[in-house]
Amino acid sequence: xxxxxxxxxxxxxxxxxxxxxxxxxxxxxxxxxxxxxxxxxxxxxxxxxxxxxxxxxxxxxxxxxxxxxxxxxxxxxxx
Length: 79
Hints:
mainly alpha, two-stranded antiparallel sheet
């Protein structure tokens, strides 16, 4: 996400998933776009994402002004 002054900040959201631990207690995240999934399935996941999810998952996909409009509309709807 971009802020005034042009600084871009990326936040690691790995904690928001359905990952699990292996036998040694190592955390294994569940990927949204798993490389072992069929490319059509991953593409479908991408095009079905709502705009708010897109701006939070894919940095610099939209211009800053568009991100602000998307965020404002999302929160005005009470999501």
